[in-house]
Design goal:
Strand content: 5-15%
Order of helices and strands: HHEHEHEHEHEHHHH
Low-confidence stretches: none
Number of strands: 5
Largest sheet: 5 strands, parallel
Number of helices: 10
Oligomer: single chain
Structural class: alpha/beta
Strand order of the largest sheet: 2-3-4-1-5
Shape: elongated
Length: 229
């Protein structure tokens, strides 16, 4: 793989299964855990709303497999590189393809994914995780054979966390950054700013930098001032 491309898709070291909050996704947790230990399903299509943790989960799966080749393929980045960027990758122990929605309707990309899927299925060893924001029937994929392939494996929705679990996850993220997040601040951010975890974590990082610069604790009044709410 082109070195520039490889640098563009480096894994986020903070994306680990130990930090992933499963919430009501216990069936997915059990199935993936079995898969990652060499048992059960190899082919997955995971879908869920933006910010529900799909990218975190895919990257975490890549990082948990030791002493084997894994690769994370974020199609938001790879789309501009063309479908040839995913050629000759089927010998990996695990392939995680993120955001299939972005290439839906692109014939060349759909055909490339179709052929990759077939090679993975045939080799009998590779784990293939594909994520999207919608169920297969709503993906707007034009290649019927690709849609049918996606349905061959386990198709499962990644459910959004409850507000309490979102706050717990934010508090864990804050703890890793070295500050305490009051529950009241977490609830305020959910009510007034964002509901998906990607945006909430970005807000926490912004607030952390602001609090360090101002030498102030992160409170609701501080949040209001910093975010102009």
């Amino acid at each position: 793989m082109n070195r520039q491309l490889a640098l563009a898709i480096q894994l986020n070291d903070e994306a680990t299964l130990a930090d992933f909050c499963w919430g009501s996704n216990s069936i997915l947790q059990q199935t993936l855990t079995a898969s990652l230990t060499g048992e059960g399903e190899r082919l997955f299509y995971l879908w869920g709303s933006e910010g529900c943790g799909k990218s975190h989960l895919l990257q975490a799966c890549c990082q948990i497999i030791k002493n084997a080749a894994t690769i994370y393929l974020p199609l938001q980045i790879l789309k501009e590189w063309g479908p040839e960027s995913i050629e000759d990758l089927s010998d990996q122990a695990l392939i995680a393809i993120d955001d299939i929605d972005v290439i839906a309707g692109d014939r060349a990309w759909e055909e490339a994914l179709f052929h990759l899927y077939n090679r993975v299925r045939d080799n009998g060893k590779t784990i293939l995780l594909i994520s999207g924001k919608k169920p297969i029937s709503s993906l707007n994929i034009q290649l019927a054979d690709l849609s049918s392939r996606l349905a061959w494996g386990l198709v499962i929705q990644l459910n959004e966390l409850s507000d309490d679990l979102k706050i717990k996850t934010m508090q864990q993220h804050a703890g890793k950054r070295g500050f305490a997040l009051p529950t009241s601040v977490g609830q305020f951010l959910i009510n007034r700013c964002a509901r998906n975890m990607h945006d909430l974590h970005a807000l926490l990082d912004q607030l952390d930098k602001a609090s360090l610069a101002a030498q102030r604790k992160i409170t609701v009044p501080f949040v209001k001032t910093t975010l102009n709410l």
